[in-house]
Amino acid sequence: MMTREQLGQSQRWVVKIGSALITDEGRGLDQAALTDWAEQVARLSREGREIILVSSGAVAEGMSRLGLKQRPKALYALQAAAAVGQMGLIQAYESIFQRHGLHAAQVLLTHDDLANRRRYLNARSTLRTLMEMRAIPVVNENDTVATEEIRFGDNDTLAALVCNLVEASMLVILTDQEGLFDADPRAQTEANLVSEGWASDVALQKLVAPRFGALGSGGMATKLSAAARAARSGTHTIIASGRQPRILERLAAGENLGTLLRPDREPVAARKQWIAGQLVSRGQLILDAGAADVIRSAGRSLLAVGVTEVKGKFSRGDVVTCVAPDGVAIARGLVNYGADEARRIKGHRAEKIAAILGYVDELELIHRDNLVLL
Ligand SMILES: Nc1ncnc2c1ncn2[C@@H]1O[C@H](COP(=O)(O)OP(=O)(O)O)[C@@H](O)[C@H]1O
Ligand SMILES: N[C@@H](CCC(=O)OP(=O)(O)O)C(=O)O
Predict the structure, then answer these.
(1) Distance 36 CA to ligand 1 centre (A)
(2) Same domain, 291 and 215
(3) Are 318 and 208 members of one domain?
């Protein structure tokens, strides 16, 4: 198991700075704090670490520049505020990194970019190239064009997908709390900090209260699911307070701060990480107990014979969810047949497919290489 010191020494970090932290109580960006984090990033990068920043703050800065007192509710108004605010955000990073002789690179991503395999691979090459050039990518959601249906909404999820994209060793989520507490510290002053846990421990999920603050969007829940997502590429997550002096440098020195969430499974293949990262599933395949069992425990392909019901509208190549008979979603995968064909072949053995459909695309409904456990 990696020690805090070894993790601190690790090479590739994604550092996420949340809205709750980066904004000066709704009065735009906290320039002094932002300067401090960026300077730490610059120093760590000059020492040879590869760092990608995922920075929130566009909406908050836009609200301040436009004189809006409250976070707009309508998506188009949020998007307009983000477009204005992103200018301030990137200007701030650019000028600080420039002082350290480093280039900042603006990378704005939508979920669509990562859902489309070719664009995903392009984003990966671009980020890798920027790191080779020793530029510092500053990533945010491309709020201006993201639609409600496919928004990340919070930057925790985006940061985790970036970790998968570049196979980061560490995800540091800086927020306004010292880490994960055993109860929401805003509601309970007695709450205790959890200093370490497993990224996909469901017991941790029970500790977090849903919270939709004035500025931040995800609360602690999205940070935990981000840690579980990041773990798929073997990435360790530390949730820590951005208000601690020299926080990034102290984490690099191996100091025991915040909550460390360790990956608890072997890293999955890059292609499977991409499948697991899809936020939209087009349909559901309800499995019988035998199929659910072999998929969960033996990593087998899904055959039509083990499917009892097909829900939704999907085409060959879409992402669908496999659901066990008790209603629990157990896996996601790229399906080899569209919904209509899947309905016709469900419950039948592979050798019957040709007789039912008049052709055979593949013997499996979802091949195990395209299937990932949740
Ligand atoms: N168990 C918990 N431990 C720590 N914080 C929690 C917990 N449950 C809920 N929270 C809330 O999550 C908030 C951080 O999330 P959020 O406001 O989205 O921050 P950010 O903008 O940095 O992503 C904290 O301010 C806290 O009120
Ligand atoms: N893209 C948005 C950030 C969304 C957001 O607030 O995320 P988070 O910091 O996770 O609460 C912005 O720059 O304002």
Answers:
(1) 22
(2) no
(3) no
